[in-house]
Each structure stands twice: as structure tokens, then as C-alpha cells.
Amino acid sequence: MYAILDIETTGGKFNEEGITEIAIYQFDGQSVTDQFISLVNPEQPIQEYVVKLTGISNKMLRNAPKFHEVAKRIIEITENCTLVAHNASFDYRMLKLEFKRLGYEYERDSICTVDLSKTLLPEAPSYKLGKLVKSLGIPLSDRHRANGDALATVQLFKLLLVKDIEKNIIQQSILYHDNRNIKDKLNKFIEEVPSALGVFYLLDDKQRVIFIGKGKNMKQELTRVFLKTSKRSQKIQKNATAVRYELAGNNLFLRLKFYLELDKINPKYNFKKQFKPKLHPFNNSDFILYEKGREIEEQAIILVENHEVRYFGYTNLAYQEQSLERLKKILSPIENTTISNVLVKNYLLKTNRVKLERFTP
């Protein structure tokens, strides 16, 4: 579970600032599950340059709650969550500073979307939030206000999770650890996974992916894994300390995500399938394939260039789809085109109802 946040402050000397506004969105990796947005009375004046930047004035904060009045809510909504922010060191420092003033030691794991973006979006023109999300076609309203920036960060982080083919985000974050007996632990894992079409990941105590599973009903499939009694299955059950999942939206993406990640991550307890290259090319050399996304109004997209399946991912804005260059930034590149070509060609041979759009490179 993640707590995606943005904080506005008074400005001023280091470690003497105060929080003026905070927005937190609790995010389970798929959708927002809770939120908290509030102005905060910092009990000190705001620097003039900050007023001009954010539009938040001292007058606006006179009747706002003080930090100690919202502290309990912040603890509750971020409990058992990894904090996610654009320049997370700043937001996390401000929270620790405010809680320290109350005599409380506030500690959370954190993820910085600036660092992630530099790794997963190496060709971005800028890593400042405004310019970065604009280049990706992500809408941003109320720039330099906590809610607007936090909402944009939610969409950015959602995109980064999909782009993170090697699953470095979930492998480097402590997501779940249970010291109870194995039966209770496994039942807890099953409760966390929905009865939906998707891919799930079992992690060990070092947060490495040790097994990847897939299914039209992930909860049922994970239950089957835990009911098996083979030596391999017993090792999976014993060594698993966390579970994560990703919805697929459709059967083609289910297979693409599963087999591409098996090839990329090579989990300890999975068997790898060998794919033989298809000799026959696609009927068209350059086209976009559209399928059902994970939620309403979202589309799953596959980009084929020169008879090779090169990119796949999701978009929910027509604006993002109108530019091929922008679309490539949003979608995840595919390294193993042998796997993707075989899966997509087999899918097209078996499926009559499919939306394709040709383009000129």
C-alpha cells in the first residue's frame, strides 16, 4: 500500500518551515482507496515568494486546523504505507519535522518519483513535476497546490508502476511481512488478492520476486498455488513473505505481462516457456492494436513497428494517443520481441473482433 502526497510550506530557513497545506492519497497499486486534503495553520508567517508561487496567504490559514489537529489523521492514512512523493526527501522531512515538534517519532519507508522517473523515463525533457507530466499527457491543475500536485503524482506513479518491467519498485519496497505461522500468512495473502484477471507476484524476505502467477481469477489461482503439496510448492509457501498484483484488463495483456516478466525477472520457482519465432509477418508492418483496459475509459495499447511488437501499456486520454512520440513515452518498451510477436500473432489469428489502426512511421 502506498500513500502518495504533496506538501506546501511557509518557506524560510531549513528545518524552521511549517506546513501550510497537505494532500494524501492512499493507493493500493491500482486505485485510490482513501484521501485526506487540508490547509494547515503553520503558526508562523508565509514567505512572500511562497505566497506568489502557491497563492496560499496568511489570511487563508487563520481558521485552518493546526498540525496537531490533523496529525492523527495523517498517521492513520499513512499507516502500513510506503510514502510516495515527487522529491520525497522534502515531503518526508517536513512530516518528520512537524511530528518531532509534537514529541512523536514519525517513520515510514519512502519512494521518490523523481528518482524513479530518471530511471524509467530516461529521455524525459525535464523531471520537474509540471514539465514531466505535461510531456506524458497527464493533466495537472492547481500547480503548486497540494491537491493538484498530489493527483498528478498519483497518475505519474501509476504509469511508472506499469513501466517498471523488472519490478524494481515492488522489490525494493517493504510491502508485507508476517511472522505468524505459514497458514495464517498464506490466508492473508489470499485475502489481499482480488478475484480479477491479472498477474500476481510472491516476494521473499529480501523483497525479490520468487514466483509469478496469472489467472482470470487471481484469488482462485493463488489459492491453487498454496494448496499444492509438491516440494517446489512447499518452498514457495515457506519463503513467500509478501504478495503484490497487477490487473491486466484483457487476456492478451495477461499473457504478455506474464511471459515478458518471466523472461525479464526469471523468478526462482517458475518454469520458463520457450517461444519459437513465428516465420510469417503481420499483414501490416506498422499499426496500433487496441484492447480493453483495466478500468472504464482506459485502453490497452500495443504498438507494432516494422512487423515487431515494440511497446505496450495503457492510456485513458485521447490526447495521449494522438501523438506517436508521446505514446512511446507512456508505453513500456519490449525487449524480447520473439515472445511478444508470437503472443500477438496467435491472438490475432484466434480473435475476430479487434480494433487496429495503421500508421506511417
Basic shape: globular
Q: Mind describing the biggest β-sheet? A: 5 strands, mixed
Biggest sheet strand line-up: 3-2-1-4-5
Measured on Cα atoms, how large is the radius of gyration? 23 Å
End-to-end separation: 40 Å
Helical stretch tally: 14
Average pLDDT metric: 88
Order of helices and strands: EEEHHEHEHHHHHEEHHEHEEEHHEHE
What is the top-level CATH class of the largest domain?
A: Alpha Beta
The CATH topology of the largest domain: Nucleotidyltransferase, domain 5
Number of strands: 13
State which percent range the strand residues make up: 15-25%
The CATH fourth-level homologous superfamily of the largest domain: Ribonuclease H-like superfamily/Ribonuclease H
SS-based structural class?
alpha+beta
> Which spans of ≥5 residues are poorly predicted at pLDDT below 50?
173-180
CATH architect. name of the largest domain: 2-Layer Sandwich
Number of domains: 3
**Percent in helix:** 25-40%
What's the structural blueprint in terms of helices and strands?
Blueprint (H helix, E strand, L loop, with lengths): L1 E8 L9 E9 L4 E8 L8 H7 L12 H12 L3 E4 L2 H14 L8 E3 H8 L8 H7 L10 H18 L4 H5 L9 H11 L5 E6 L5 E7 L2 H10 L3 H9 L2 E6 L3 H15 L21 E6 L6 E7 L2 E8 L2 H4 L2 H7 L1 E2 L3 H14 L4 E4 L3
Parallel strand pairs: 1-4, 4-5
Antiparallel strand pairs: 1-2, 2-3, 6-7, 6-8, 9-10, 9-13, 10-11, 11-12
Helix pairs in contact: 4-6, 8-9, 11-14
